[in-house]
Please model this.
Amino acid sequence: EVHLVESGGGLVKPGGSLRLSCAASGFTFSSYNMHWVRQAPGKGLEWVSVISSSGSYMHYADSLKGRFTISRDNAKNSLYLQMNSLRAEDTAVYYCAREMRGGFCSTASCYGAPSDYWGQGTLVTVSS
Amino acid sequence: DIQMTQSPSSLSASVGDRVTITCRASQNINSYLNWYQQKPGKAPNLLIYAASNLQSGVPSRFSGSGSGTDFTLTISSLQPEDFATYYCQQSYSTPHTFGQGTKLEIK
Model:
């Protein structure tokens, strides 16, 4: 059974940093592109970032470029999101999600497949 | 970036009703359109992918159609467990933008 478990959320001051982790199990992690999606309290879903199965390609929401970095460790079946220079508007539940097989990534974009499994989310609160 | 616009933003309906939610992309996304259901406090759940493909385990009362820029999600006969928020998402190109959501409420 596929399991995705996020961790690392918490309360951080504006300007601070946080590293989220997502532990994957129940599937061959190294074969799947992985995503981060966030949801501010009472708001809709916002796509954050994707990393290709090998870790060769990463893409970000334009508003987050330069502050957030996605990475993965296939040997540890883990996905990460390093978040720097955090702002109040980054307050959200952060979900990791597995992309269904069939997608494709390049330097230009990742396209093709939806996210078929999601973790339960981890809450990040940015406040002084 | 591709903008996704859903309508309506909210919808009141009764058990047994047929409901349709629409999603419009700001440019051609072929059939790279996905639909998710989200219940309060839970992660989203994939319902439909590639515009019209039913995800495994999803009841057949859910269906999707469309291509290019205009898409629809239809629930043929609402069940009590279907009252939730629905999101469309394009996976044609990054960023994989979501619609703003449609909240389906009990009338």
User: Anything to note?
Assistant: The mean pLDDT of chain B is 97. Residues 39 and 84 of chain B are 5 Å apart (CA to CA). The longest strand of chain B covers residues 19-25.
